[in-house]
Amino acid sequence: MLRFKMSPSSAAAFLRFTFWTLLISPAVSLTCSTQKFNKNQVFSTCIDLPSLSSYLHFTYDSPIATLSVAFVATPPKSGGWIAWAINPKATGMVGSQALVAYKNSTTGVPVVRTYDISSYSSIVPKDLSFAVWDKTAESRSDGSLVIFAKIKVTADLAASGKINQVWQAGPGVGDGGMLVKHEFAAANLQSKGTLDLKNGDTSGSSGVDTTIKKKNIHGILNGVSWGILFPLGAMIARYIRAFESADPAWFYLHMLCQISGYAIGVAGWGTGLKLGSEPLGIMYSGHRNIGIALFVLATVQIFALFLRPKKDHKYRFYWNIYHHGVGYAVLVLGILNVFKGFDILNPDRKWKLAYMIIIIALGAISFLLEAITWVVVLKRKSGKSNKPYDGYNNGQGGRQTLAT
């Protein structure tokens, strides 16, 4: 039996070599320059696209304005789709002329379809506005798909030498070739850029896209207002006013929270309307409708401050019912819509988790204060006075909820 001895220095060198090989090899394998195709197609240029782990290989024949492309991407699910598109007039997905590849649900063979995406509400197979031929697709062992095609570049785009490209990947394909909606995470929203056909490079979304910034601002404003300040103001009105020493401080704290929440919420509501009205905006009907309802109800609630009858007025009882009912509606719809916003914006999991912790903490505090304040009220009722002071009706009735 042959035995080999390795000196400590040689062993250390070997370990360093192994470590760097393992570290570098994945990075090397995930570049377009290492990719090969089943039919050994060769392209003059390849680019690692900046999002969705996608790659573009292309050859541009300038004299005849013909673009040969191979787009490589991985669907988020096994039955998903990938798409590469040219947008002749804008930089987003709406208006783009798309090549989409997915595996046929019956045969499992990848196919390519063309889609003229005039709007997000209607995405079905349709001929493109320019000539395209030799459309084929291939599946790879790593789960990715490849779109091959040759495209006739229009005269105006050929003159500029640049095209607006958009790429995407989605989870599935429905009946009639209807594409299942893709995610709207940062990587999906940044999957666009300008392709320089002559110099062979691309410029994509650097940093955070402007639309993403607007969505983040919209989410923060609404999360703070409807999701935190309004529940906190409601808790102050319900629990703190039960303590005699807190009057009238509870009322001013309640008003501060609700008016601040309303002002911030209106700002968030306005940014949401602006996002929905932009040409490339995406309509989230449920989230939008709840937002509009919140604005209307909160506005009515603010007007309650000016319409509030005196404590001994005969209509005060009805005002209490109206104020409490609207307050609870705003509370429930606000928290519900914040979670809908999380599902749409799809931020890092830590942000949703942080908000859940805040809501759970507020709920736990409310549960504890509910027990404490009932004890306070019951003790007061069993005391000397038959009409205990409750911080709201000045001893003119029982315990109220969410009143101001």
UniProtKB/TrEMBL annotation:
One matching Pfam family: DUF568
Positions of transmembrane segments: 219-237, 290-307, 319-339, 354-377
Taxonomy, superkingdom: Eukaryota
UniProt: heme b binding residues: H218, H254, H287, H323
Cofactor note: Binds 2 heme b groups non-covalently.
Organism whose genome encodes this protein: Gossypium tomentosum
Primary localization class, coarse: membrane
Record membrane topology: Multi-pass membrane protein
InterPro entries xrefs: AIR12_DOMON (IPR045265), Cyt_b561/ferric_Rdtase_TM (IPR006593), DOMON_domain (IPR005018), UCP037471 (IPR017214)
Function: May act as a catecholamine-responsive trans-membrane electron transporter.
Protein name per UniProt: Cytochrome b561 and DOMON domain-containing protein
